[in-house]
Specification:
Length: 471
């Protein structure tokens, strides 16, 4: 029986652009081959409304990936759209060599949402650029060079940030990453240590845990690995350490609960600054807190953010202390589009909608419901190895078997995703082995939508098992 899609009172406009085959031709001939698509027959999307996307034929899809965790408050949210339209009729761009109201109003609203002393913001165009700038500031401020990052982390694809991005498929076969040292990822599911009490999630790994009350043995072991990295691979003094509060590209990987607290202390002892990459975890997506770093009970020295900041509009930010920000005055730093008037108005409208629609609370309530529902499928299907995450940042890791934890081949994962797409649900698919489904929907998603997604995913899993058993 086919899963019934929840109702939607929105009707898309008629598609009037090039035919589908002509679009494919243009993509092949005129666009960089790096622009890969997810499906065997690429989706040609035409319009979006809140948690829904519509293709050129008018078919509707539940969007569980939100343009890679970017559409925070909903596709074409009417308040954000109206704010952008109004500003487009007033002033598009002046560059930040002049004052205009939007940048100052937005800086005031954004910094009010961060704890002291994180009160100074530099606006940029993308997460890669934000992390690039954070790297520069860390090195200038500390007068040190080495930066420490996690294996499996994704922090951008610019020539500078490629050093921090520790995912092989992004690495070119030329020199990159000078001065960036990776340390073991404290992954309590796939790593050598971890168990059923280690992570801050409504759903724990099924691995057994020998930790006693108030003591996490996995955390202690992973901290020893970080200490070993600092002893052997880095200078006595370091520039800094960067981490996503929950890893994004790698499939919502979470660390032991106290890991970042101890890691920050070790880095600061060596003269470094601590950078929280909030590109995917920020703006209420984790549910319990507005910023991912708050879930670890730490205050970083630099925060970078992008994606959900503009609900799909290209903007990003670096927020830091006055003392660290002042270091840029030693050089001439300029960004033509950073703080663009339209971008700032969009960002401001996003903050308004997050508060007015209570989307952080919705992330917590609907996200927890979703985690628990998908965990039921983990208990039912041998190939669903792990369900994890917090709020509306969720990973479902697929395995050959729970005992081996060997990744399910990427082609199998892709086919399951293909079947889900055909039934009207769009998942993200990534991870080091291409083995993890990523769920980061617009934060307006409902429990009814979750029920539909879970039913579709279960149907796709059963179809996969039927195919494999027939071989």
């Amino acid at each position: 029986m086919k899963a019934k899609m929840p109702p939607c009172d929105f009707s898309p406009e008629k598609y009037e652009s090039y035919p589908y085959e002509h679009m494919l031709k243009i993509r092949k001939q005129n666009l960089f081959p790096t622009l890969v698509t997810c499906y065997k027959k690429p989706l040609l999307l035409h319009q979006g409304h809140m948690q829904w996307l519509f293709d050129y034929e008018g078919r509707r899809y539940l969007d569980l990936f939100a343009g890679v965790a970017t559409v925070s408050v909903g596709h074409c949210h009417p308040k954000v759209t109206a704010a952008a339209q109004k500003q487009l009729g007033r002033l598009w761009h002046t560059s930040n060599i002049y004052m205009h109201p939007a940048i100052h109003e937005y800086a005031d609203k954004l910094t009010a949402l961060l704890p002291d002393p994180l009160k100074v913001v530099c606006l940029t165009n993308s997460g890669s650029e934000a992390n690039d700038l954070a790297m520069l500031m860390a090195r200038l401020y500390t007068r040190n060079f080495d930066l420490i990052c996690f294996r499996g982390g994704y922090h951008g694809a610019s020539p500078y940030t490629l050093g921090l991005t520790s995912v092989g498929v992004f690495k070119p076969s030329i020199a990159n990453g000078f001065g960036c040292q990776t340390t073991m990822l404290p992954d309590v599911f796939r790593g050598p240590w971890g168990g059923s009490h280690c992570r801050d999630s409504p759903v724990q790994t099924i691995r057994k845990c020998s930790c006693s009350q108030g003591c996490c043995e996995a955390n202690d072991q992973y901290i020893e690995q970080l200490k070993d990295t600092l002893r052997t691979c880095a200078s006595k003094a370091v520039a800094g350490f960067i981490a996503e509060p929950i890893q994004g590209y790698n499939g919502a990987v979470q660390y032991p609960k106290r890991f970042l607290q101890e890691a920050f202390r070790l880095i600061r002892e060596r003269g470094g600054v601590c950078i929280a990459d909030e590109v995917q975890t920020g703006f209420g997506r984790t549910g319990s807190h507005f910023w991912g770093f708050q879930t670890h009970d730490v205050v970083p020295d630099i925060v970078t953010t992008a994606k959900g900041i503009g609900n799909g509009f290209p903007m990003a930010a670096v927020i830091t202390t006055r003392e660290i920000a002042n270091i840029l005055a030693q050089i001439f730093h300029f960004n033509t589009f950073g703080g663009n008037a339209v971008a700032c108005v969009v960002g401001s409208a996003v903050l308004d909608v997050l508060a007015e629609d209570d989307l952080q609370k919705n992330s917590e309530e609907v996200g927890t419901y979703m985690l628990l529902e998908f965990a039921k499928l983990r208990d039912k299907f041998e190939i669903v190895g792990d369900v994890r995450g917090k709020g509306l940042m969720i990973g479902i890791e697929m395995v050959k078997s729970k005992d081996s934890r060997q990744p399910l081949p990427a082609e199998d994962v892709n086919q399951i995703g293909e079947d889900c797409k055909d039934m009207g649900v769009l998942f993200g698919m990534s991870g080091i082995y291409g083995q993890t489904f990523r769920i980061k929907p617009p934060m307006c998603i409902t429990k009814q939508d979750v029920d539909f997604a879970v039913e579709v995913f279960q149907a796709a899993l059963m179809r996969h098992l039927e195919k494999t058993s027939a071989k």
